[in-house]
Each structure stands twice: as C-alpha cells, then as structure tokens.
C-alpha cells in the first residue's frame, strides 16, 4: 500500500476522529498493528490555530512516520494556508476532509457538505495539491444523500486533481452514522479510478474486514469507531487477513498493561487535570460490556488525579484477570467475545471494587 512515495507497513488505517485520534491513541494503534493513522481534523481558519486544542492536534513529537494531518474548510485559499502550515509542522501527508457529517462542520460549508458542489471540490483539491510538496489525500462519503450518490464523479475529480489516495465512507452525508453501510458505491469508485481506494464504514471484526475487501476490491481499510476501546483490532484483522484464522484477544493482564501505558502517554500529553478528564471516555470504551463497568465508569468520574485513575484501573483489572482473554468477560455477545460464560463471581467482585 502506497500513498505517494510513502510505503505503508500494511493496508489498515486508523480513521480520523475528532476527540479520539489524538497522538497517544494514534501511537497506540500503530503499535498494535495499524499501518497508517490520520490526525484529528484541523480547522483551516487561521484564527483557530492558536488554541490549545489546535496546538495539540499539530503536535507530532515522536510520532511514528508517516505523519498525516487532516484539514477541513470550504475556502480554497484558507485550505492552502492550512496545508502549508501543517507541512511546516511535520505533516508528511495532508488529508482533506469532505466526509464529516457533523452539523457544525457542514453548516460552515465544509466536510461532507462540499460534496454537493463538485466545482468547489475541484478548486479546493487542485489548489491544495499545487501548494504543497507532500502527497494529498481525500476522505469522502458516497454523496450528499441516497438519491444523489456522486462519489464516482468526485473520485474522478480527485484523481484529475492529483489526489494520491481516496478514503470512502459507505454512507451519505444525510445518513450520518445510521443505517446499513452501502459498499457498492465504494466498489464503483475503485473501478473508476487508478489511485488507491480505502474502504471505511462499519468494519468491526476481522470477518467484516475480509468481506469488505471482497465486496469493494479496495486497496485498504479504514477503521474508526470499532477501534475505540479495542485498539488491538488492527492486529486481529491483520492476522485474519494473512492466515484466515482468528487471533485470541488480549489477556486481561496484557489489556491492563496497554491501558495503563495509554493512560501514562495520555496524561503526559494533556497534563494531569485535562488528561484525567479526557481519559474517562477511553476507559468507558475499554470497559464497555464488562462486569461492573457502569459502576466503574461512575467511580471514574470522581477521580481527579492520574495516580488514582491508574490505580482504579489496576484494581478493576485484578478482578477480571482470572477470567482469561479480555473480551471473554463481556456481557454482550460480540464476535470477539466468544461467549460470556458464567461471570457471576467476577461480576460481583468488579461491582464491589467499583463501588
């Protein structure tokens, strides 16, 4: 898998997700098998570049190459300046967001709202490609609405403009994240262009990954929400695609070590007070469906220091450790879980710890 002159370790990518794919999370996913990761969205408006949020989103110190930064906006000149600004701060790949369906993004005539104006799409892409000497990629949806799926037309515009790779989420802007992902349009995009195409949308298991590759013919896969609380999904998918066999989920001991390391990086990146607060959502994702998880998450909301947060995670994991692989303790019947089994003793112990 290539993006411009960059040769990636594999064809699995971490989707850019605002408030999720910060540097600590991207690094963790890369350690666990992701060959590529795109940063959180950076606004093209220069008035926002001096905020703490934007400074963190453009902090790539020590990050595994290639560093890819996503920019968003609807004005070609501002997008050019945003691309140059981020290349100067270490971006080796610039990704253009034309896929976000969020109202605050679309209301600013950016994200997936741009798909309704193909002429503007062309102007933005040509301007950014011409402005920087690094590969430029594009992320889109299948169109503005189900009745107007124009991803093939946009893909051709992108290829003509010099875009190096294209990621396509299999829903329209109007669909948000609701309903079944439609992969036929991604397959049509792949047939229509010669640049690498990355399929995205509802890839939650290794079996999903194999199915989507077969359905679309895509060159790579982009994983978003399924990696929240399960960053090891990338090595699971990589193993399944290579061997056809399922990889065992991590043991509780391994998951605990990964989570504690993630927390340490997270606290160092944000500072203790902010880091502890923002980490709560990650802990919620990590423990989703596990015995006593609701009470554990409620207890986390009262924790104010990094030491307390790590200690609480370790106590909680101690109760689960005797139950084998991490997802074997889940209450829900996910494909990765393989059945919950009789978890009454662990559930009682975990709830007691969380109380």
Task: Note the beta-strand portion.
Answer: 5-15%
Termini gap: 48 Å
Averaging pLDDT over every residue, what do you get? 87
Q: Low-confidence stretches at least 5 residues in length (pLDDT < 50)?
A: 331-355
Number of strands: 10
Task: Offer a concise description of the structure.
This protein has helices at residues 23-31, 52-57, 76-88, 103-106, 118-131, 151-161, 184-192, 206-216, 233-243, 252-270, 272-286, 293-300, 306-320, 344-354; strands at residues 2-3, 6-7, 12-14, 36-43, 68-72, 93-98, 136-141, 165-169, 197-200, 220-223.
Question: What would you note in describing this structure?
Answer:
It is built from 14 helices and 10 strands. With 355 residues, the protein is of the alpha/beta class. The strands form 2 sheets. An 8-stranded parallel β-barrel has the order 3-4-5-6-7-8-9-10, surrounded by 7 helices. It has a two-stranded antiparallel sheet with strand order 1-2. Strand 4 (36-43), helix 2 and strand 5 (68-72) form a beta-alpha-beta unit. Helix 1 (23-31) packs antiparallel against helix 10. The longest helix has 19 residues, at 252-270.
What are the defining features of this structure?
355 residues; alpha/beta; globular; disordered C terminus
């Amino acid at each position: 898998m290539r993006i411009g002159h960059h040769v990636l370790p594999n064809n699995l990518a971490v989707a850019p997700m605002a408030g999720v794919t910060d540097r600590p999370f991207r690094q963790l996913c890369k350690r666990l098998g992701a060959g590529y990761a795109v940063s959180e969205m950076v606004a093209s408006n220069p008035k926002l570049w001096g905020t703490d949020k934007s400074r963190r989103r453009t902090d790539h110190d020590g990050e595994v190459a290639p560093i890819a930064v996503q920019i968003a906006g609807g004005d070609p000149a501002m997008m050019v300046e945003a691309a140059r600004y981020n290349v100067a701060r270490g971006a080796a790949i610039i990704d253009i967001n034309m896929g976000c369906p969020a109202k605050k993004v679309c209301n600013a005539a950016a994200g997936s709202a741009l798909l309704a104006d193909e002429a503007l799409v062309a102007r933005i892409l040509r301007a950014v490609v011409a402005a920087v000497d690094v590969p430029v990629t594009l992320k889109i949806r299948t169109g503005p609405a189900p009745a107007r799926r124009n991803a093939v037309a946009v893909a051709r515009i992108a290829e003509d403009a010099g875009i190096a790779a294209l990621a396509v989420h299999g829903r329209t802007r109007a669909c948000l994240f609701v309903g079944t992902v439609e992969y036929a349009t991604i397959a049509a995009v792949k047939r229509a262009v010669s640049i690498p195409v990355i399929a995205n949308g509802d890839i939650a298991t290794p079996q999903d990954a194999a199915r989507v590759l077969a359905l679309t013919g895509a060159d790579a896969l982009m994983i978003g929400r399924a990696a929240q609380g399960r960053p090891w999904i990338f090595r699971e998918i990589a193993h399944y695609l290579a061997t056809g066999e399922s990889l065992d989920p991590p043991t509780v001991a391994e998951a605990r070590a990964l989570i504690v390391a993630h927390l340490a990086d997270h606290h160092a990146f944000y500072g203790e007070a902010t880091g502890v607060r923002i980490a709560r959502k990650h802990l919620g994702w990590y423990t989703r469906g596990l015995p006593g998880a609701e009470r554990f998450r409620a207890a986390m909301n009262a924790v104010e220091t990094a030491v307390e947060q790590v200690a609480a995670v370790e106590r909680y994991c101690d109760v689960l450790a005797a139950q084998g692989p991490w997802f074997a303790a889940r209450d829900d019947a996910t494909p990765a879980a393989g059945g919950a089994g009789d978890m009454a003793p662990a559930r009682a112990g975990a709830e007691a710890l969380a109380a």
